[in-house]
Write a sequence for this structure.
């Protein structure tokens, strides 16, 4: 029976070594899974941060674009009003611009008569100056100045 004790001891030792090897391999695998999971969470958080920042930038650029478009649309309406004030008929203006009579009527409805001389907005006037627009606009786009701001006079 002494032989059996030695064989049993050798078998137990061999079993423990196999289990330890398996446990060590499992531990290495679990650490790799944990590292991959941490990478996943890190990069997912980065994606969310980038998407949030991008959405904020898109909203800012969209607001700037909408404001510029509205200003340009108003200036176009003022130019239409100027043509009407110079004696052109709405039909003639429609032919020259390619707009419908209804579009001209709608565009000039809120403009009122053209000013005798354009006035630059002063401090506290509620309007942005071109310099203020350049400072808050990070797109680098700048709309060209209307004819009358370049020194021209539509009334001559």
């Amino acid at each position: 029976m002494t032989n059996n004790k030695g064989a049993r001891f050798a078998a137990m030792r061999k079993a423990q070594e196999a289990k330890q090897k398996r446990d060590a391999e499992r531990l290495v695998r679990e650490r790799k899974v944990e590292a991959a999971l941490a990478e996943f969470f890190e990069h997912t958080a980065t994606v969310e941060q980038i998407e949030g920042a991008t959405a904020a930038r898109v909203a800012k650029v969209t607001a700037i674009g909408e404001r510029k478009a509205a200003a340009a649309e108003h200036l176009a309406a003022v130019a239409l009003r100027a043509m009407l004030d110079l004696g052109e008929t709405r039909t003639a203006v429609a032919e020259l611009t390619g707009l419908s009579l209804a579009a001209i009527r709608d565009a000039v409805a809120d403009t009122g008569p053209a000013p005798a001389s354009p006035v630059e907005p002063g401090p506290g006037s509620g309007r942005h100056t071109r310099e203020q627009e350049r400072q808050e606009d990070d797109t680098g786009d700048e709309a060209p100045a209307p004819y009358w701001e370049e020194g021209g006079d539509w009334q001559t």
In short: Residues 2-114 form one domain. The longest helix spans residues 2-85.
